TrEMBL record, chain A:
This is C2 domain-containing protein 5. GO terms for biological process: insulin receptor signaling pathway; intracellular protein transmembrane transport; positive regulation of D-glucose transmembrane transport; positive regulation of protein targeting to membrane; positive regulation of vesicle fusion; protein localization to plasma membrane. Residues 1-109 form the C2 domain. Residues 274-289 have a biased composition (Polar residues). It comes from the Eukaryota. PANTHER family: C2 DOMAIN-CONTAINING PROTEIN 5. Residues 265-325, 703-733 are annotated as: Disordered. Coiled coil: none annotated. GO terms for cellular component: cell cortex; cytoplasmic vesicle membrane; plasma membrane; ruffle. It is found in: Cell membrane; Cell projection, Ruffle; Cytoplasm, Cell cortex; Cytoplasmic vesicle membrane. Required for insulin-stimulated glucose transport and glucose transporter SLC2A4/GLUT4 translocation from intracellular glucose storage vesicle (GSV) to the plasma membrane (PM) in adipocytes. Binds phospholipid membranes in a calcium-dependent manner and is necessary for the optimal membrane fusion between SLC2A4/GLUT4 GSV and the PM. GO terms for molecular function: calcium ion binding; calcium-dependent phospholipid binding.
UniProtKB/TrEMBL annotation, chain B:
It comes from the Eukaryota. It holds the Pfam family FIBP. InterPro entries: FIBP (IPR008614). This is Acidic fibroblast growth factor intracellular-binding protein isoform X2. One of its GO terms (molecular function) is fibroblast growth factor binding. It comes from Octodon degus (Degu). GO terms for cellular component: nucleus.
């Protein structure tokens, strides 16, 4: 009995009228945890009852504490008939289970009913007393911290980054149980909400156990998803990165390192005991003294979990216990394995006869499934392997060995992080992705969800082998997703193949001289662009050049990644959001035929999405994509592909070539005229974009490089595919000398459409920028005004004349119009940037397309950079660099070079101004937050991991909420728009209330993971499921901090020192 | 391709002041879009009509959801669903409770009942204010009236506390409530020249001096109902005109002092008795609630119109009224000095305000 949960019900307000006669309510409250229920007295005739109850005490196992939500039900007492439910509040008490987070949950919670929405509020206080548990075979993992943030959280320092953790839990969906036919919609919704809450708790606990086994103390980049598989069940799965984090108890102590990287500062992160149990809460202490042994741990972790990831630290040489993979032998040397695999993808990229590539798996478990997997490499052609420069060679080999040994211990060397401590990321290979089409089958035994596990294991294996083929040992920015339609499910995984610095992966044993060498050898700001693979073994007709920055190592001409832009990356100009959109019609089919049809379509879609991305990137005059996310959605009669990424111009990579249009019939005069007209338009667009995004790379004379480098104006050639290259193309090539050109052949209307669609993307209006990454290169003077929003659109396609082109156009218009609407709505925030723009597409019905966008608009001050006394700039720069440091939690390396390598030197700031012809001074006053004294505390929400102009001082715990809302009076609630608008507003309100009750004032890394909307207008009904998550935090405004620092002049002259005092 | 669903929800609720105004003015979405297009917003922002339509719909939906809360403004402050900065909340409330001059002149002094509500159609046609907007304004009046009607304490304070309005607007509402409760006639043709501001000014003076609250601040309805006892007592003033000697003495006192100071001295001298009779009779009649309702009609008929026809300058009216009320103190035979001051002090203020073209 290691825990006591205490709950007090204080009061209610704004309750609904439950008794029509008196216009009042006789309310009482039921408090339920596990199987125990307490009740308050009935507070007669009031809409604002004051219960002021005693403390209800629940004595429970910590396992239950982790799994179960606290359930509070508000009811209206009725003497003669059954009591009417007013609504419920579910409180996740997990944040109370680790000592550094919240200590009490106290505040007003909206009372939520799945039919009526929010009906008043209730004031509740919750506390937990935890006792030490000495049971080494415990099932709970209290004390492991969870973060949604995909970087090392601010105010923590990563001692070790252990690696990938995953888990999944399955159950029957209450909506599809027989009992659902006789119970009310409310009961059914509540059963579902409760079940998912339970499953999430269980999942989190199991992941926590794995983390403890790895001797970590936290999960970063925790991503939990639901698969509503309908008849076949409900799957809750999660992935994350296990870490050992150390709380930065006094950041001020680290600050001197900023100016003088003294030796002792440098040693701090490594010399300290990397013991995960720095937190004081009892349960985890036993592990500390326990000699680590694998067998018992394995036995208990397997008891009820469905794990396929082996947690033991013994090197595993034979992973993949399940289904035979045809092409992959894990023990074979990485390179041969890689090339074998690469051949396949070459074929894929050059050939249209793809059918042989999907293979049915013969494993008994997967009897009915058809699998196709395919990979998308960083560039259709522009990727390959390169020799490390002569100087780097032996070192690289050593590094590789080290990393390999560190990573080979793991079955899956994956990291869900997208932002890394400096020095962690050595090289980036490119995007690796894998997809597989499966047929869903009823999950017969929820305790043995081996099928789902096997599916994911298979995909992860594939990702791993793709990474190996790119000469990489690890995958970063890793994520997984599914798309389900009827009984067909597409599983997708993607990430960025990378070579990592082993230093962070082990217990600090490999530091020392290697570390020193590493820093000497890695040129600042371009190292990650250098190819990790071997140039001599290039499987692709790749185009490599020497790095434009250091001129020592080879770089590809284009780089695609799923991670955020590294902070030290050297970028020219600003970035922009780039999207590729695609629809493909598909015949309606059943089961296996359907799965086969989808499998056959997938490679074409991937290829086209990729081509579109390439074209658009070149059209923008840029050469790298970050934060790439490709979503393939399956519907009854179509497949949708949506890829979003942030394009940038990396200084280390060569200038992108232009786009060359070639006609099929060169002798036709008018046709040629048309072509040349188009060509001119494209060239103009590229020039315009270069100006818009301020891309003015310095001209480099050829002799410096010593390799053929296209001059900025000349085009580089990049054939779409070898097999298609015709004579004209070759001629064209010749006319441009040895230079490359990206040739688009216009040989049919399809291609014409393609070119047209390229040109239809309108840039955002002046004063607006957009990206889907955390930070926007080229903008650094953020002001504190932020606006997070969710926008949802559903369009109905006319069922007539549905062609691929019409469909594409509809989808393209939908997305473009949505963006235009956002720009219009947020026009008062100009100059501003939409960050972390996240599109999700779903196909709820035959002719419906739903697009959901969540993003945050952040204003920036275009004038700030202009008021330039030199001291001012220096100060802000210093702060910025110190900030970066905070951001990364690795103060040591950055110190010396953060100033010179800061991506936005003061000179740049002037150009920021130029970009905004709109907007006069009248926007300036908006930056001041007017909302100081409100009765309801302001809670900020943002999908980013930081809050501009503020410092996060405390993480209070993870927010992970699931809501269902249903209505049988759709028209009365304002139709589908009114219904969903109200529901999303309510979800925001409930998230804010929970954060405020934890004592927080913001949610960072907020994400709406699911928004499933179903309507039946004929029956006047609609239902919606929403799942959101994020990290509750406390932040302090930097301006407040500076005030504090004035009062404390003794501490240090740096403005950030004050942060130390505030941070707890 | 038709948009089935199209929503935008911000963590901080976006409020577009222009659209809010259009919504308050009762325009339909399509009318509002047309008006916005005419304002040149498309050219300024480079947006399309479709974008404008979607944006307008979205704002209208938000306002519709907020309306329920605006009916009880403290709820808006405590609710959790819409995160709105306090300055914006204040703006929403203030604008929602703002009213049109043309509308309030139609309704001022009328009973805020279902019957009046039925007349809103006509008011809408007459004033050119949309019916929807008329309804909102009428409902606002009625809601405020219902809440503060039977409350003790200062009327203005009560309104401010329960509706979180600005001081200015609370005072206006106090006037509306006061007029509605006492049913003062304001719609007669001869009163048409008066603005709401004129009436509100008078109402404030009357609330300060003529209500129960003026003597005792602890009674219910103190600021809403006139002090019945005071009205009864006003009969005593009749002696000022009924007693011929007193009237003559009064006249001579006023004329002596004002001789040479007024441009219209002779007209004043000729009209003194009529004017005095008018003012005192108004006081004496206030016992009957019907005559209370006609207070403003009487004041205009008995005082404002005669003076205006003789072209009295405003300054002369002021000098006259000051002297007229002050010289009563020198009348030895008159014992109701305090009563006279309570009556005339307020009336003097009102008359000066009412005296214009």
């Amino acid at each position: 009995m290691p825990g006591k949960l205490k709950v007090k019900i204080v009061a209610g307000r704004h309750l609904p009228v439950m008794d029509r006669a008196s216009d009042l309510t006789d309310a009482f409250v039921e408090v339920k945890f596990g199987n125990t229920t307490f009740k308050t007295d009935v507070y007669l005739k009031s809409l604002n009852p004051q219960w002021n109850s005693e403390w209800f005490k629940f004595e429970v196992d910590d396992e239950d504490l982790q799994d179960e939500p606290l359930q509070i039900t508000v009811l209206d007492h009725d003497t003669y008939s059954a009591n009417d439910a007013i609504g419920k509040v579910y409180i996740d008490i997990d944040p109370l289970l680790y000592s550094e987070a919240a200590t009490v949950i106290s505040g007003w919670f909206p009372i939520y009913d799945t039919i009526h929405g929010i009906r008043g509020e209730i004031n509740v206080i919750v506390k937990v007393d935890l006792f030490n548990d000495l049971n080494r075979f415990r099932q709970s993992s209290c004390g492991v911290k969870f973060f949604c943030t995909t970087s090392i959280p601010k105010c923590y320092r990563a001692v070790i980054i252990h690696g990938f953790v995953e888990e999944l839990v399955v159950n029957e969906d209450p909506e599809y149980q027989w009992i659902d036919r006789i119970r009310t919609p409310r009961a059914s919704n509540e059963a579902r909400q409760r079940l998912i809450s339970l499953m999430s708790g269980e999942l989190q606990r199991k992941i926590g156990l794995k983390v403890l086994e790895m001797r970590g103390n936290a999960v970063v980049g925790y991503l939990q998803c639901f698969d509503l598989e309908g008849e076949s069940g409900l799957v809750v799965r999660a992935i994350g990165t296990a870490c050992t984090l150390d709380k930065l108890s006094s950041p001020a102590a680290f600050l001197p390192a900023c100016n003088s990287p003294s030796k002792e500062m440098k040693e701090i992160p490594f010399n300290e005991d990397p013991n995960p149990n720095t937190h004081s809460s009892g349960p985890s202490t036993p592990l500390k003294n326990q000699t680590y042994s694998f067998s018992p741990s394995k036995s208990y972790s397997r008891q009820s979990s469905s794990s396929d990831t082996d947690l033991s630290l013994t090197p595993k040489t034979a992973p993949s216990p399940q289904g035979p993979r045809i092409y992959l032998c894990p023990s074979s040397p990485p390179l041969s394995c890689g090339s074998l695999h690469l051949k396949k993808s070459c074929l894929l990229l050059s050939d249209s006869s793809l059918a042989p590539h999907h293979c049915s798996l013969g494993s008994p478990v997967l009897r009915k499934s058809v699998s196709f997997s395919e990979e998308l490499f960083l560039a259709a052609s522009g990727m390959g392997s390169g020799s490390a420069g002569k100087e780097g060679g032996p070192f690289k080999a050593l590094l590789r060995q080290q990393t390999q040994s560190a990573l080979e211990q793991r079955e899956f060397p994956f990291f869900t992080l997208t932002v890394f401590p400096p020095g962690f990321l050595v090289h980036v290979g490119g995007v690796v992705s894998a997809r597989s089409v499966k047929l869903l089958d009823r999950i017969h035994n929820p305790d043995e969800p081996e099928t789902r596990d096997a599916w994911w294991a298979e995909i992860r294996q594939e990702i791993k082998s793709h990474a190996k083929a790119l000469g990489c040992h690890a995958v970063v920015g890793y994520s997984e997703s599914t798309s389900i339609c009827e009984e067909v499910c597409i599983l997708s995984a993607s990430g960025t193949a990378a070579v990592l610095n082993p230093r962070f992966l082990q217990d600090g044993t490999v530091e020392g001289c290697l570390e020193q060498r590493l820093e000497e050898n890695l040129p600042v700001g371009c190292g990650f662009c250098h190819i990790p693979y071997d140039e001599l073994n290039m499987p692709f007709p790749a185009h490599l050049t020497y790095c434009y920055n250091c001129r020592k190592q080879k770089v590809p001409d284009v780089l695609f990644t799923t991670i955020d832009l590294p902070t030290d990356a050297m970028v020219i100009g600003k970035g922009c959001l780039i999207q590729a959109r695609l629809c493909r019609l598909k015949k309606k089919a059943q089961a296996e035929a359907n799965a086969t049809a989808i499998s056959n379509l997938l490679p074409f879609m991937e290829y086209e999405v990729h081509t579109q991305l390439m074209n658009k990137l070149k059209l923008k005059g840029m050469n790298a994509l970050f934060g790439l996310r490709i979503q393939i959605t399956v519907g009854e009669n179509m497949l949708m592909g949506l890829a979003s990424a942030t394009g940038v111009y990396l200084a280390a990579l060569p200038a992108p070539g232009g786009i060359q249009i070639a006609g099929k019939t060169p002798n036709d005069g008018s046709y040629e005229q048309h072509i040349s007209h188009m060509q001119k338009k494209i060239n103009d667009t590229i020039a315009k974009n270069r100006e818009l995004y301020e891309i003015n790379p310095p001209e480099i004379s050829e002799e410096v490089i010593g390799s053929p480098i296209p001059e900025p104006r000349q085009r580089s050639r990049l054939l779409r595919s070898q097999s298609e290259s015709s004579d004209e193309v070759t001629e064209l090539d010749l006319s441009h000398g040895k230079k490359d050109a990206f040739v688009l052949e216009i040989d049919d209307t399809d291609a014409l459409e393609d070119v047209h669609s390229l040109l239809t993307d309108v840039p955002p209006p002046p004063g607006f920028y957009s990206c889907n990454t955390e930070i926007m290169p080229g903008i650094n003077n953020w002001t504190s005004e932020i606006q997070m929003f969710t926008s949802v659109r559903v369009i109905r396609l006319s069922s007539l004349n549905l062609t691929n082109q019409a469909l594409n156009k509809n989808f393209n218009d939908l997305c473009e119009n949505l963006l235009k609407s956002l720009y219009f709505k947020l026009r008062s925030m100009i100059p501003c940037c939409l960050c972390h723009v996240n599109f999700t597409v779903s196909l709820p019905e035959d002719e419906l397309i739903q697009v959901t966008v969540t993003a945050v608009a952040i204003t920036f001050d275009k004038n700030q950079a202009l008021q330039t006394t030199k001291a001012h700039i220096e100060k802000s720069l210093q702060r910025a660099s110190a900030d970066t440091e905070e951001l990364l939690q690795f103060p040591l390396e950055l110190c010396s070079d953060s100033l010179p390598s800061h991506p936005f030197p003061p000179a740049k700031a002037v150009t920021v101004e130029k970009a905004n012809p709109m907007g006069e001074g009248n926007f300036r006053n908006r930056s001041a937050p007017p909302c100081a004294s409100s009765t309801v505390g302001v809670v900020k929400m943002t999908p980013l991991s930081f809050i501009p102009g503020a410092k996060i001082t405390k993480y209070l715990g993870i927010i992970n909420m699931f809501f269902i809302r249903e209505t049988t009076s759709l028209r009365e609630e304002g139709g589908v728009s009114g219904f969903l608008h109200a529901f999303i507003a309510e979800v925001f309100a409930m998230v804010r209330a929970h954060v405020a009750a934890l004592g927080g004032n913001a949610v960072v890394s907020y994400i709406m993971k699911q928004c499933v909307f179903m309507e039946n207008p004929n029956k006047n009904q609609a239902q919606c499921l929403i799942n959101v998550s994020g990290d509750a935090v406390v932040f302090v405004r930097e301006s407040d901090l500076e005030v504090a620092s004035v009062q404390q002049p003794t501490a240090n002259c740096q403005p950030l020192c004050a942060g130390g005092e505030v941070t707890t | 391709m038709t948009s089935e669903l199209d929503i935008f929800v911000g963590n901080t609720t976006l409020i577009d002041e222009d659209v809010y105004r259009l919504w308050l003015d009762g325009y339909s979405v399509s009318d509002a879009v047309a008006l916005r297009v005419r304002s040149g917003i498309l050219e300024q922002t480079g947006a399309t009509a479709a974008v404008l339509q979607s944006d307008t719909m979205d704002h209208y939906r938000t306002f519709h959801m907020l309306e329920r809360l605006l009916h009880a403004p403290p709820k808006l402050l405590h609710q959790l669903i819409f995160q709105i900065p306090p300055s914006r909340q204040a703006l929403l409330i203030e604008r929602y409770y703002a009213f049109d001059e043309a509308f309030v002149r139609e309704v001022l002094g009328k009973k805020l009942s279902k019957g009046t509500k039925k007349d809103l159609d006509d008011i809408s046609t007459k004033t050119g204010i949309t019916l929807k907007s008329c309804r909102r304004q009428f409902d606002n009046f009625k809601r405020v009236f219902k809440v503060v009607e039977e409350m003790r304490g200062s009327l203005v304070d009560n309104i401010q506390q329960h509706f979180l309005l600005s001081d200015r607007l609370s005072r206006d509402y106090a006037a509306i409530v006061f007029f509605a409760n006492n049913r003062f006639e304001t719609g007669k043709k001869k009163l048409q020249y008066l603005s709401f501001g004129d009436f509100a000014f008078c109402a404030e003076l009357m609330i300060q001096n003529w209500t129960l609250g003026a003597v005792d601040s602890q009674v219910d309805d103190m600021d809403v109902d006139l002090d019945k006892e005071f009205l009864q007592d006003l009969k005593e003033l009749k002696v000022l005109v009924a007693d011929k000697d007193l009237l003559d003495l009064h006249k001579s006192l006023v004329c002596t002092t004002l001789r040479g100071k007024l441009s219209i001295f002779s007209e004043m001298e000729a009209n003194f008795k009529n004017l005095s009779r008018g003012l005192v009779n108004v006081a004496a009649k206030l016992t009957h609630s019907k005559d209370v309702r006609d207070l403003f009609v009487d004041l205009v008929e008995k005082f404002v119109e005669p003076c205006r026809s003789d072209h009295w300058p405003l300054n002369d009216v002021r000098l006259f009224l000051n002297q007229y009320s002050a010289s009563v103190h020198s009348l030895d035979g008159f014992r109701h000095q305090a009563l006279w001051d309570r009556y005339m002090g307020t009336l003097r203020g009102c008359l000066l305000r009412l005296y214009h073209d």
